[in-house]
Amino acid sequence: MTAEEYSERNAKSKKMLLWFAMASMFMMFAGLTSAYVVSTSRPDWLNDFVLPQAFMISTAVIVLSSVTFHMAKNAAKNNNHSGATMWLMATLALGIGFVAAQFYGFSQVVASGYYFTGPESTVTTSFLYIVSLVHIAHLFAGLIVLLVVIYNHFKQKYNSSQTLGIELGAMFWHFLDILWVYLFLFFYFY
Predict the structure, then answer these.
(1) Where is the protein situated, by its record's location annotation (predicted)?
(2) Using CA atoms, how far apart are residues 99 and 137, in angstroms rounded to an integer?
(3) I need a labelling partner for 1 at 20 to 30 A (CA). Which of 29, 47, 108, 158 fits?
(4) So what's the pLDDT on residue 5?
(5) Phi/psi class of residue 121: alpha, beta or left (left: φ > 0; alpha: ψ in -120 to 50)?
(6) Contacts 24+ apart (CB under 8 A), 150-159
(7) Confidence of residue 149 (pLDDT cuts 50, 70, 90)
(8) How far apart are CA 111 and CA 97, in angstroms?
(9) pLDDT (0 to 100) of residue 115
């Protein structure tokens, strides 16, 4: 086996492992949203609950962050180091902005009088908190991946012939984006 064949097999293996990991994460969220659907028949369910405005903003922010990560990957593939740096930093800022918008959304829920636990909590808002916080936990993993990608980028590890790390990072980031859009639309329309 040549070094090129080994490198190609290694890349395919890593991508397949990431696909399995993302599928298992999606199944966890499918279970949570299924439990949400089943719980809507409870007598204490809030039928008039409206998602906070900050969740709409955070959705736009995370979609934009996927665009910037894609631009960073393309810049790295084209040996545009300064362009990749700019887009990676923009992705990092947007990722942090997403988390900040999520927590601002939680404060809007609390300002409406709904808490995670206690007498002011409801099963409806508890589901919203749990699902959102579990997604944020996965996004923190995505931010760590992004920081590793940025570190490797500054170490000049990505170029037109070596993009595996940034490709894997982008795949995971896009997955987190698609997952949040699914969750947002689910909560918004269901």
Answers:
(1) Cell membrane; Membrane
(2) 10
(3) 158
(4) 87
(5) beta
(6) 150/88, 150/89, 150/92, 153/76, 153/81, 153/84, 153/85, 153/88, 154/85, 156/81, 158/76, 158/84, 159/76, 159/79
(7) very high
(8) 21
(9) 86
pLDDT band per the 50, 70, 90 thresholds, residue 6: confident
Q: Which residue ranges form the domains of the chain, and what is each CATH number?
A: 3-189 (1.20.120.80)
Quote the tokens at residue 173.
Answer: 């980031």
pTM, two decimals, is 0.92
Give exposure, 58-87, as e/b (b: 16+ Cβ within 10 Å).
Answer: bbebbbbbbebbebbbbbbbeebeeebbeb
Whether the CB-CB separation of 101 and 58 falls below 8 Å is answered with yes
**pLDDT tops 80 at residue 1:** no
What are the C-alpha distances in Å from 145 to residues 59, 96, 148, 166, 168?
Answer: 20, 13, 5, 9, 9
Give residue 120's pLDDT.
Answer: 80
75 alpha carbon, distance to own chain's centre? 22
Beta-bridge mates of residue 162: 159
